[in-house]
């Protein structure tokens, strides 16, 4: 069974919209991860491992976005100096 050209065009358009929405959402999450981890790095300086924070946040697709005012969200990225 072959689809009509109009139906193919509509399906292709919907697929393109879904792909674009997904890419846009990913870019937003990555930006938020980098921004929040960068802010924590500015606040805590050498005591904060900003790169590990950003990598973890991006790897989890924003599930672990840190809040610099809530230690429970970023304490694993703090460094101890002896």
TrEMBL record:
Signal peptide: 1-26
Record-given protein name: Eclosion hormone
UniProtKB keywords: Signal
Recorded GO MF terms: ecdysis-triggering hormone activity
Pfam families: Eclosion
Superkingdom in the source lineage: Eukaryota
InterPro entries cross-referenced by the UniProt entry: Eclosion
Keyword Signal: yes
GO BP, sorted A to Z: ecdysis, chitin-based cuticle; neuropeptide signaling pathway
UniProt key word Signal: yes
């Amino acid at each position: 069974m072959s689809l009509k050209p109009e139906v193919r065009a509509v399906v292709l358009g919907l697929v393109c919209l879904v792909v674009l929405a997904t890419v846009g959402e990913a870019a937003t999450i990555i930006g938020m991860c980098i921004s929040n981890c960068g802010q924590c790095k500015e606040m805590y300086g050498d005591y904060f491992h900003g790169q590990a924070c950003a990598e973890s946040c991006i790897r989890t697709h924003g599930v672990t976005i840190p809040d610099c005012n809530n230690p429970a969200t970023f304490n694993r990225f703090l460094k101890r100096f002896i």
